[in-house]
C-alpha cells in the first residue's frame, strides 16, 4: 500500500467560488469572497513564475501566500494515497514526477499549484 502513496506540497489560493471562504490569513473571508477565480489564477501564476525562475522558494511562497493551514509547514501535506484528496488534486499529483511543479489545478477548495516531493 505504501508504494501507492505520494507526498506533495501545495499553494492554495481561495476565491469566491471556494467551498469554504475563510482561511488562516482571512478568518472572516472578506478578501476571499471578493476574489474572482481569474484573479486567484493570476496571483497563482505569478507566484509559480517566481518559484520556477528561482526568485523565490516554494516553501517560502507557500508559508506566506497559501490559504491552506499547511502553509505553516511550507505547504507540505505529507503522504497520502488515492481517495484521500479531491479527485483533480489527486490526479494532478500522481501525474507529476518527484520534484515537478504542476500547472494550475482547480478543486472545490480553490486553485492550487502542487509540488510532488515523494
From TrEMBL:
It holds the Pfam family Rotamase. It comes from the Eukaryota. SUPFAM superfamilies: FKBP-like. The keyword Isomerase applies. GO terms for molecular function: peptidyl-prolyl cis-trans isomerase activity. Belongs to the PpiC/parvulin rotamase family. This is Peptidyl-prolyl cis-trans isomerase.
Amino acid at each position: 500500500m505504501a508504494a501507492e502513496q505520494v507526498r506533495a506540497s501545495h499553494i492554495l489560493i481561495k476565491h469566491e467560488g471556494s467551498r469554504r471562504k475563510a482561511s488562516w490569513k482571512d478568518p472572516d473571508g472578506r478578501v476571499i469572497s471578493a476574489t474572482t477565480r481569474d484573479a486567484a489564477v493570476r496571483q497563482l501564476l505569478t507566484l509559480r513564475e517566481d518559484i520556477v525562475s528561482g526568485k523565490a522558494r516554494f516553501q517560502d511562497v507557500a508559508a506566506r501566500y497559501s490559504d491552506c493551514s499547511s502553509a505553516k509547514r511550507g505547504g507540505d501535506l505529507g503522504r497520502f494515497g488515492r481517495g484521500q484528496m479531491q479527485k483533480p488534486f489527486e490526479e494532478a499529483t500522481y501525474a507529476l514526477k518527484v520534484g515537478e511543479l504542476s500547472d494550475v489545478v482547480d478543486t472545490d477548495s480553490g486553485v492550487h499549484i502542487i509540488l510532488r516531493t515523494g
